[in-house]
Amino acid sequence: MKKFTCVEDLHNLQSALQEAAEIKQNRFKFDSLGKNKTLLMIFFNSSLRTRLSTQKAASNLGMNVIVLDINQGAWQLETERGVIMDGDKPEHLLEAIPVMGCYCDIIGVRSFAQFKDRDYDYNEVILNQFIKYSGKPVFSMEAATRHPLQSFADLITIEEYKKTDKPKVVMSWAPHPKALPQAVPNSFAEWMNATDYDFVITHPKGYELDPSFVGKAKVEYNQMKALEEADFVYAKNWAAYSGDNYGKVLNMDRSWTISEKHMAVTNNAYFMHCLPVRRNMIVTDDVIESNQSIVIPEAANREISATVVLKRLIESL
Amino acid sequence: MKKFTCVEDLHNLQSALQEAAEIKQNRFKFDSLGKNKTLLMIFFNSSLRTRLSTQKAASNLGMNVIVLDINQGAWQLETERGVIMDGDKPEHLLEAIPVMGCYCDIIGVRSFAQFKDRDYDYNEVILNQFIKYSGKPVFSMEAATRHPLQSFADLITIEEYKKTDKPKVVMSWAPHPKALPQAVPNSFAEWMNATDYDFVITHPKGYELDPSFVGKAKVEYNQMKALEEADFVYAKNWAAYSGDNYGKVLNMDRSWTISEKHMAVTNNAYFMHCLPVRRNMIVTDDVIESNQSIVIPEAANREISATVVLKRLIESL
Amino acid sequence: MKKFTCVEDLHNLQSALQEAAEIKQNRFKFDSLGKNKTLLMIFFNSSLRTRLSTQKAASNLGMNVIVLDINQGAWQLETERGVIMDGDKPEHLLEAIPVMGCYCDIIGVRSFAQFKDRDYDYNEVILNQFIKYSGKPVFSMEAATRHPLQSFADLITIEEYKKTDKPKVVMSWAPHPKALPQAVPNSFAEWMNATDYDFVITHPKGYELDPSFVGKAKVEYNQMKALEEADFVYAKNWAAYSGDNYGKVLNMDRSWTISEKHMAVTNNAYFMHCLPVRRNMIVTDDVIESNQSIVIPEAANREISATVVLKRLIESL
Questions:
Q1: Do B48 and C78 touch (CB under 8 A)?
Q2: Please, is A28 exposed, middle or buried when counting C-beta atoms within 10 Å of its C-beta (0-12, 13-18, 19+)?
Q3: Residues B18, B24: contact at Cβ < 8 Å?
Q4: Do C278 and A90 touch (CB under 8 A)?
Q5: What do we know about how this protein assembles, alone or with others (chains A, B, C) (predicted)?
Q6: Of the residues A102, B176, B219, B304, which has the maximum number of CB atoms within 10 A of its CB?
Q7: CA-CA distance, A31 to A184, in Å (whole number)?
């Protein structure tokens, strides 16, 4: 595996899940695989879970880790040819990125959507610059349009908890006071579509996701109807994607907050969320504290998904 | 040892001191004990000595280390149930802390007194949240009311330098331009009270410490009288503890600055301070540069105390 | 080797170059030499290349690394005796630096010229404080007047690419919008003077470097004449050194920008720059993208020079 930015990069999902199970059994099984291999983690956006879990995964494999925090404003790389660089931009990407690649074996990049220009965001400009120019395998630690380490951990978690071969999984929009990127819901949809689960997306009108991520999923605007007989409820907020509303919060309708009333129509579903979660906006205290809430095991699986991904990238060197 | 926040956590002080001496002889004696164990160091307050010495200690044991700097203002965790989280606080402690615990084996926390609310400070709210919710062994890298890694290093140092079985140790308040927490003096008193040393505390009226830390120590308001025949002089500033004066600087009386005049009445005492120290406020140049000053060996013992503590926490896993 | 701040510290340059070649062949050849050795990297100025390459070099040798970022403004150490420290400076260097030395085996320091006081800069006050008071081997990660890890990497690169025993190497000033220190050109001159290359410096009037660094180099004010038959063109901007102009940008004459016209008079020279580089100020797109541009291999050799230096410092312990 030469890069990891989306579900396709894993190729055979079943074998990846088997590898995850094997590593979860003994997360230090490959603890000398990463000897004398250096991971460079580059953060354009701050991170808690992703940083800790990826650093832990690298340790599991015996890698060295270098963390680089780049203030988003500070990444003023010139990208054009012919520009006389006498202004704010001190370096051209054609020097900056290959140089970073010199001092490491694998690069992780976190770079969120900025909600200024949908095309810029959805073209994954920064992530793709690293893939094109660094000369090293690159993986996403959440990019503008996808968060594949999260989605892989979500899938591992569903596989661990599912009681039927083809569970019904419902991803429900829920309210939030701030405008959040679509990376997590896009990515979750992409990964669910790669399984044979019964996958349903529900959200208020206006929150339609990019059709290329929605794919074969069923979209149901009636939240309660969508949740009927669900085996897993995956709650998440996102800002609007469509047209001029791109990046906007259209409403904060708290009837969409996942409550016991919502869970009651499910098939005693498990509750999932990628965290951090705002209680009583996304989900009530009662639901997230219930026995059916698996948000902590889901977070813990971030270490497992990152270990599998790093292992495969090392093996490709 | 499942936590380390105060002297009681070490149980048998003599065996801990023996372990310290053994590690000082060969600080890499247990360098494979920490293999595949990850230490998460969480700083709510900045740190130089504690960060370096604890990270060095973890290296001595072969651990992996992840450092997390949390701006104090940024740690806005919701702690209540039922709150609709539509404001500044992005996460509830019931999710945030267990998640951090997922990605490590041991957690160190530094969180100072804030001097806004004495009860909040003295209840060690943040430290105790980590103990209660992280699911992992927690140790203090200086909390609101104690600094046990410092006190343990202080005790190791006294044991190394003492010339009699029961030395006279005098902790003296000294002036400082800013309001400093009571963590170091509280903790030093607690540790001295756990020995059979002759322990005396001296300070101006108004600087009385919490009686539960003063314990069986003798309090002497006359500094010169307190220092007579001392074997060790432990200088430290602290802000007032009592009543409405909590967290206030009551005076900066430089007659309390430890000078040669003060040292002259001692039994050729050693001079100690936890550092950083303001010269000619806390102590004169002449005293801190004298042969009797042991502030650098005392600082160096921070590596030893941290190695013992981490070793014991690893052994409990 | 007990310190590394200038070319003399390497003693025999030929044996250092042989060691570099040996390490480049297998950069993990000495990967257990640094076991249980801790490198403390102290940054008074921000860093990308130096930080990554030095951290990678330490990993190559199996060292532990602690990175300390010190905001330049924050390093308010008192240096005088007798001062009553009741102001902004919380610590005296006589305590602060020995304490840092307690928790590591080797110290790297980055501290740039501040352009406020030429004597202060050229006396390398901060670097020398660490050498004098830390008790540990110290190396420069770019100081006020030299950048020896860069110059060593430059020399390694020239040795790899040179086609004749005594190549002609031309260091050319080039325009830049900001005032840059002389550390890189001083240091490059010092290292070139330690070889038997034909070394020429060219710059506009007013940009004369400190004569002690210029040494036996030929200074030629006519840039085109200087470049004739050059085998290597080393471009770099620097601010004025002389007299009242110290630290000033005297002009931004873009006729000095290295272009194809300049390269045409050379002996098909290789183009070098320490990076980051401002295109079309220092050098045109065409030249830096040409086959003769070796800026990326030059940057990659930073890992090699740092590995040699750390190896020698470890061997001296």
A1: no
A2: middle
A3: no
A4: yes
A5: Homotrimer.
A6: B304
A7: 30
pLDDT digit of tens for each residue in chain A (317 aa)? 999 999 999 999 999 999 999 999 999 999 999 999 999 999 988 888 999 999 999 999 999 999 988 865 556 788 888 999 999 888 998 999 999 999 999 999 999 999 999 999 999 999 999 999 999 999 999 999 999 999 999 999 999 999 999 999 999 999 999 999 999 999 999 999 999 999 999 999 999 999 999 999 999 999 999 999 999 999 999 999 999 999 999 999 999 999 999 999 999 999 999 999 999 999 999 999 999 999 999 999 999 999 999 999 999 99
Beta strands, E only, chain A: 3-4, 38-43, 64-69, 77-78, 91-92, 106-110, 138-140, 168-173, 198-202, 218-219, 232-236, 270-272
> Which of C43, C46, C61, C35 lies closest to C100, judged by CA?
C43
**A103 in contact with C, Cβ within 8 Å:** yes
| Binding partners of B (≥3 Cβ pairs within 8 A) | A, C
**Chains in contact with A, counting 3 or more C-beta pairs less than 8 Å apart as contact:** B, C
For C123, residues 6+ apart whose C-beta sits below 8 A from its C-beta are: none
C21/chain A closest Cα distance in angstroms: 17
Count of pairs with CB atoms under 8 A, one residue in B, one in C: 76
Cα–Cα distance for residue pair A280/A265, rounded to 1 Å: 19
**CA-based nearest residue to C258, from C275, C236, C225, C231:** C236
DSSP state of A44: S
Measured distance CA(B45)–CA(B51) in Å, rounded? 11
| Helix runs in A66-218, H state only | 93-102, 118-122, 125-133, 148-161, 183-193, 211-214
Nearest chain B Cα to A254, which residue? Answer: B84
Touching check for B88 and chain A: CB below 8 Å?
A: no
Angle ∠(B248,B254,B257) on CA atoms, nearest 5: 100
Instruction: Dig out the tokens for C53 from the structure.
Output: 């390459």
Q: B81 vs chain C: nearest CA distance in angstroms?
A: 39
Q: Do A84 and C31 touch (CB under 8 A)?
A: no
**Chain A stretch 46-65, residues whose beta carbon is closer than 8 A to a beta carbon of chain C:** 64
Report the half-sphere exposure of C194 (CA within 13 A, side-chain side): 23
- What number does CATH give the domain A151-299? 3.40.50.1370
Assigned token pair, C166:
């005594």
Domain range list for chain C: 3-146+302-315, 150-299
Domains A3-146+302-315 and A151-299 share a fold: yes
Residues of B in contact with C104 (CB under 8 A): 52, 56
- Tell the residue number behind the tokens 């890499």, with chain if given: B28
Q: What CA–CA distance (Å, rounded) separates A72 from B244?
A: 45
* Neighbour count for residue B216 (Cβ, 10 Å): 8
Q: Which two tokens stand for residue B274?
A: 């936890």
In sequence order, the 6+-apart residues with CB closer than 8 A to the CB of A291 are none
Which CATH architecture fits C150-299?
A: 3-Layer(aba) Sandwich (3.40)
Global ipTM: 0.94
Read off the amino acid at residue C261: K
Strands C218-219 and C198-202: parallel
Contact A36 C59 (CB under 8 A): yes
Domain spanning B3-146+302-315: CATH 3.40.630.30: no
* Residue showing tokens 């989900």: A283
DSSP state of C126: H
Could you tell me whether strands A168-173 and A232-236 are parallel, antiparallel, or unpaired per DSSP bridges? Answer: parallel
CA count, 13 A, side-chain hemisphere, C20: 25
Task: Give 3-state DSSP helix, strand, coil % of chain C, rounded to 5.
Answer: 40, 15, 45
- Shortest Cα distance from A94 to chain B (angstroms)? 32
